[in-house]
Amino acid sequence: MRSANLRLSLPKRILDATPPRRIITGPRFTPVVQALPSIVPFVAPDEIERSRGQKFSVRLGANELTFGPSPRAVEAMQAAAATAWMYGDPKSHNLRQALADHHGVQPLNITVGEGIDGILCNLTHLLIGPGDKLVTTKGTYPTLNYFVAGKGGLLQTVPYGPDDRQDLPALLAKAWEVDAKVLYVVNPDNPSGSWHAEGKIESLIEGLPPGCLLLLDEAYHELGVDFDANAKVAVDDLRVLRLRTFSKAYGLAGARIGYALGAPEIIAAFDKIRNHFAISRVGQAGALAALLDQAYLHEVRERVRHARETLGSIAAQHGMRCLPSATNFVTMDCGKDGAFARLVLSELTERNVFVRMPGVPPLDRCIRVSCSSDEDLRIFSEALPGALKDAERKLGSK
Amino acid sequence: MRSANLRLSLPKRILDATPPRRIITGPRFTPVVQALPSIVPFVAPDEIERSRGQKFSVRLGANELTFGPSPRAVEAMQAAAATAWMYGDPKSHNLRQALADHHGVQPLNITVGEGIDGILCNLTHLLIGPGDKLVTTKGTYPTLNYFVAGKGGLLQTVPYGPDDRQDLPALLAKAWEVDAKVLYVVNPDNPSGSWHAEGKIESLIEGLPPGCLLLLDEAYHELGVDFDANAKVAVDDLRVLRLRTFSKAYGLAGARIGYALGAPEIIAAFDKIRNHFAISRVGQAGALAALLDQAYLHEVRERVRHARETLGSIAAQHGMRCLPSATNFVTMDCGKDGAFARLVLSELTERNVFVRMPGVPPLDRCIRVSCSSDEDLRIFSEALPGALKDAERKLGSK
C-alpha cells in the first residue's frame, strides 16, 4: 500500500507525543481471551468426512433426528425461503406466542436463541465474570464449559454417581461449598441418556444455595419417559431456568432454534445483551410449524422408542449392556475401559459408521449411538461385530 | 411444590454453617450487566405492525433487498430445508472455501457469523472489557455500541463531518487521544449512504495508533460506486478487519450470514469464543448459491442504481435534496430540523409506508428510504406529498 499517511493530519500535540514510525502490532485481546486455548473440541461429522475423504454411511453420532422434521415444518421453511430477503422478527413473536400457549405460560417467560448453545453463551455473559463459579457434572454436555471459560469463569465439577446418573446431592453440596452462581444439570442427560424425575428436580431447587441459578438443560425432554404433552411448566421461580430446543425431538438441528423458559426477570435480562437479529426467518417458520404438529412429535417418540429397543437387542447380541435412555440415543457399555471403547469407535469410523463416545470416565467405557431407522441400525449392526473383534485384537497387541 | 428438600442431604458442616430457611433470591448478574439499561432500540417493522394492528404497504425502512435473493439461492434453501435435521457445518467449510476463492484469500482469512451483528458481538467479546475504549461516529450504525456497552466498554464518538460523511481525520485523532482498542468505520456508511474511497481507508490504516484495530463495516460494499467484482481483498494486515454480509446486496437478511475477512491471527481468535454451531444449515446453502450467482448480483446493482435515481427524482419534485448514496437506500434531506423529519416519518407510517430516519444530528434532518421496485416507490411517492404537507401543518401548530 503506497498511500498518504492520514496520521499527518493529526493535531500537533499528538504528533509531537508519539514516534512517527513503529512496528505493526495486532489487536489487544482481553486478558481472559489471551489465556484461552486455541484448540476447541468441536469436530463435526462434516469435518471427519473431509479429513477421511469419505462420506459416512450412517450419521449416528450427533443425536440428530435422522427421521427428519415434520413435513409441515419442511413446507413452512420452503415457503419462508422466498421471503428470506426480510430480517426475521427479532422478538420471534409468533413462535414465542405459540410456545407460551403450548406451555401454559406468557411470551415474557420465553427467550429464543441460536439453539440451546446460543442461550448458554448468553447466559454465561449475564452471570459469569472472571473468577465466578459454575458447578456441573464432569463429562456431561461440554459446550457450557467452553462458554464459561470464554468469560473467565471457573468450572467446579463432581463425577457421575455410581449408577451413571448425575449425582444431585453431590452437585448441590458442591454448589454450597463454592458459592456457585450457576448449577448446570442436563436432564435427560447427554451422554449417559439417564434422567431424574421431576420431583427430584423440585427437591434440588428447594435446596439451592442463595443466588444460585439452576440451569436445567432439557434438550431431550420431549423424548423422555416422563414426558407429558399437557404438562405445564412452572416459570415463576427465580431459581431455575429451563432450556428446550427444536434440534432434537423436533428434528430441526440445522435451523438453530432453542429457547429458555423462566421468570420474566431472568428472561428480560437476555434482551440486554443478546444478538437480537440472530435468528433466521426460515428457522422461525420451521420451528413454529413443527411445534403445531404435535401428532408428528408423538410419532417420533414411538419411532425413537422402537429404535432404542432395537439398539438394546443389537448390544445384547454382543454381550453389551445399554444404559437406560430417555433420549434419542443409546449409550452402550463396551464392557472394558476407555481405551477399548476408543478402539471400538475408531473401528466403526473405519467402517464409515459415525458414532461418538463420552470423553470422561467412568462413562468413557461406552459408545453413544443415535436412534435411527431400521435400515440405518442394520448398517450399524453389521459393522459392530467386526469393529468389536478388531478392537479386541488391537487391545491385545498393545 | 411440595417436595422433600434435597438440602437435608447436605454434609453436616454445610448445614451447620447456613440457615435452614431463607428468602428466595434471583440470579446474581455481573456488575456490567446490572448497569445495563433494560430498553434496547430494536423496534422491528414486525413490531410496529403489531402495535399499529396493520401491515405496512411497503417495507422501505430496513434496507432489505426487496427484489429478493437470487432464485438459485431460494432453490438451494428449499432443497436444504429437507436436510435441516442435520446441524450445519460449524466450520462453514464450503461457504468459506467459495468466499476464499471469490476474494483471492485462504479460508483461514474468513470467519462466518450470525450476520455482521453476530461478528460485532464476538469482536467485542474478544477485545472489549470494562473500561476499554472504542471510537465511532456519533449516529452511524448503532448495534456495535450496544455490544460495547454489554461488555462494559466505553464509547468515544466524533460527529459526522460537514459533508455528512464520517470524519476520518477526527476519528483518527480521537483514536490516538483515548488509546482506542477499536476504531469502527462504516463504509459505505449507514445511515448517510456516504463513502470513502479505498485510498482514504489505506491512509487511515497507516495512521492508526499502535494496537488499535480498524473495524471496517462494509455491509453495503457490493452496492458501492467503487465496487469491482474482481478486486481482491488484502488480508495480511493485523490492523484491520473487514466485515461483509449476505443481508444486503445478496438479499438474504433472513438467513443470517455475515463474515469477516482478516489476518489469520485475528480470525483464529473467533474460534476461541464463538458459538460454533450458530449458523443454520439452510442459510449456509442459500449464501453459497447466492455467492455463485454473480450475474444476479450485477442485475441487483443495476436495479438499485435505477431505484436510487427514481428516489432522487421523487425527492426533487418536493424540493428535497438526496445525499449521495453508495448503498441500497437514499437519505433524503427534509430541509428542516429533526423535529420536522420525525413528523414526516410519523406521517409516512400513518400512511402504512415503513421508512426510518437517522437518530442523531445533523443527519436527523433526513429520512432514509430503501431502494425497491418501481411499484413500491410509486406507493412511497404517492404518500410523500401528503406526509410533507401534514408534517408542515403540525410543525406550524406546535
UniProtKB/TrEMBL annotation, chains A, B:
Catalytic activity: L-histidinol phosphate + 2-oxoglutarate = 3-(imidazol-4-yl)-2-oxopropyl phosphate + L-glutamate
Amino-acid biosynthesis as UniProt keyword: yes
Boundaries of every Aminotransferase class I/classII large domain copy: 58-384
Keyword terms: Amino-acid biosynthesis, Aminotransferase, Histidine biosynthesis, Pyridoxal phosphate, Transferase
Coiled-coil annotated spans: none
GO biological process: L-histidine biosynthetic process
Cofactor(s), by name: pyridoxal 5'-phosphate
GO molecular function, one term: pyridoxal phosphate binding
EC numbers: 2.6.1.9
Database matches in Pfam families: Aminotran_1_2 (PF00155)
Keyword Amino-acid biosynthesis: yes
Enzyme class: transferase
Pathway recorded for this protein: Amino-acid biosynthesis; L-histidine biosynthesis; L-histidine from 5-phospho-alpha-D-ribose 1-diphosphate: step 7/9
InterPro entries, A to Z: Aminotrans_II_pyridoxalP_BS, Aminotransferase_I/II_large, HistidinolP_aminotransfase, PyrdxlP-dep_Trfase, PyrdxlP-dep_Trfase_major, PyrdxlP-dep_Trfase_small
Protein family per UniProt: Belongs to the class-II pyridoxal-phosphate-dependent aminotransferase family. Histidinol-phosphate aminotransferase subfamily.
Name the record gives this protein: histidinol-phosphate transaminase
